[in-house]
Design a protein that fits this description.
The protein is an alpha/beta fold. Helices cover about 50% and strands about 20% of the residues. It is built from five helices and five strands. It has helices at about 10-30, 50-75, 90-100, 115-125, 125-135; strands at about 5, 30-40, 85-90, 105-110, 140. It has a five-stranded parallel sheet with strand order 3-2-1-4-5, with helices on both faces. Strand 2 (about 30-40), helix 2 (about 50-75) and strand 3 form a beta-alpha-beta unit. Residues about 115-125 have low confidence and may be disordered.
Length: about 140
Amino acid sequence: MKRILVGVDGSGEAAAAVDKAAELAGAAGAQVLLAYVVPRHPPPGPDAYAPEEQIREEKLEHSYAAAMLREMEMRCIARHVPVDSATLTGSIAASLADLAGSGGFDLVVVGHRGRGGVRRALLGSVADRLVQISPRPVLVVR
């Protein structure tokens, strides 16, 4: 195993996924790439948001992503694991699956976010969807 992709979102589950990936990478001499995906949220109607508000929201999301990725990078650096990070935009599961396939990753690691039965059935989850569509093995960390 040479490369591990970790999907992060700032949650406790994502931090646990980073820790597990760093543990595996340290044992295997692998590199870690932390990826944060900024989801696209189209406005619900043609006049729902002013363009300035959309731009402001996107800048805030990217700023949050950069700060959170730096924090997660430090978790890997503390274990002496080579780490890099990337911010993507799009559907979260699809973006991670595409990156996993095109980036030569051996493993994808994500946190599991527990959801109630009805909500999970209606919305699905990123981890569940990623397991279904990823061209690489996926480790879901609880």
